Amino acid sequence: MNDVAADKTSSAPSTMHYSLWQLVRYMLGLGTWGFGGPVALVGYMYRDLVEKRHWISESDYKEGLTLAQLMPGPLAAQLAIYLGQVHYRVLGATLVGLAFVLPSFVMVVALGAVYVAYGGIGWMQTVFYGVGAAVIGIIAISAYKLTTKNIGKDRLLWAIYLVSAALTVITQSEIVWVFLGAGVLVWLWRAPPKSWFGGRLHGFAAPVVAWFALNPADLHKLGQIGAYFAYAGSFVFGSGLAIVPFLYSGVVKEYGWLTDRQFVDAVAVAMITPGPVVITTGFIGYLVAGFWGSVVAAMGTFLPCYLFTIIPAPYFKKHGKRPAIVAFVDGVTAAAIGAISGAVIVIGQRSITDWVTAALALATASVLWRFKKVPEPAIVLVAAVVGLLVHPLSIHG
Asked: Has residue 278 been placed in a domain?
């Protein structure tokens, strides 16, 4: 009887070491200073919420990371929403999600206004020259920490990790079937079902929320923007790495809303501002239809991922400790971290263009490895200054 009471007490909300508003403030801060894209942001959440503050358990974090990889939409935003849901349900998921996205949204809207007013952001290319290289060092360290913490010495997980990383590098995208297949493989290997046909199947399926998008051909431009970005948010899996080429085919090739140069600038804005990379949709929306275009584009992108997170989350919370689910989660997590590590190489190929950027990336990784308390924003600021000083010389040289 006492053991039962102790178990109930250990899982009760009273054992939590934080309030909802503390988590909201943390996500507001992360959205304000969290540079490095989805890989780095996911690493920050693990370091701060699991390792340092002990607000989120290891298992809850892994379940959230798995759900974020399985569902379409931006990885870091979905993980943040899930972590808000862990102890504070829908209210927590909603407030945490808004807090995480809002700072970067405000920044890209402001940059969009400057861009439109002055006809371009040439200075941003010099900043990105340094920041992009430093970001590679940041996400490489984050990927290393995730790998060593979650993969361990398990040979099956290492095999899945390496295959997933290789496929990400080769295809330059994150393939959801690799995550699902890895989960099923580890599930069948570690905890095969006792009865294939006689037993009750406890499965889960993602709700087909994506079909709420209306036909853009019959709507005003805001309707087109909302429908297209809702579609993008509903069918693109993984991180900003996956959604960027998808957006290019739509906003440049299909609709002709932006030129090639404007689209490249939009991606640069997303990379040098903190928060989720996918917030570039807010910048694109501003260029297409002003402030309300940015609002509609951002809402269209993030609403599907919000729904795809909060609807399955209770299932993960309730049934996540079953051996079959644990095995499935381990497999998907290994594939997800492999994809994240592969993404480091893909992004690095685009950001490291000469010996200066290579040196910046290595220096960033070395500093973070040696001095674990150095804040990433300080490194990003130094890299931006280096970019402003060195990039003009590299062009003229």
From this structure: yes
Can you give the length of the chain in residues?
Answer: 397
Residue at 185 is within a domain:
yes
Answer yes or no: is 289 within a domain. Answer: yes
Residue from 269, 263, 257 nearest 111 by CA: 269
Which residue is it, tokens 């899982």? 11
The answer to whether residue 131 scores a pLDDT higher than 90 is: no
Give the range of the structural domain holding residue 214, as residue numbers without chain letter. Answer: 12-194+204-397
Query: If residue 61 lies in a helix (H) or strand (E), which one and from where to where?
Result: helix 58-70
And the tokens for 184? 């099923």
Query: Residue 374 carries which DSSP code?
Result: S
Name the domain count of the chain: 1
pTM of this prediction? Answer: 0.65
On whether the CB atoms of residues 337 and 343 are closer than 8 A, the answer is no
Residue in 132, 35, 98, 109 with CA at minimum distance from that of residue 357: 132
Segment 139-197, tens digit of pLDDT: 788 788 878 877 888 889 999 999 988 987 887 666 667 877 888 888 888 878 765 44
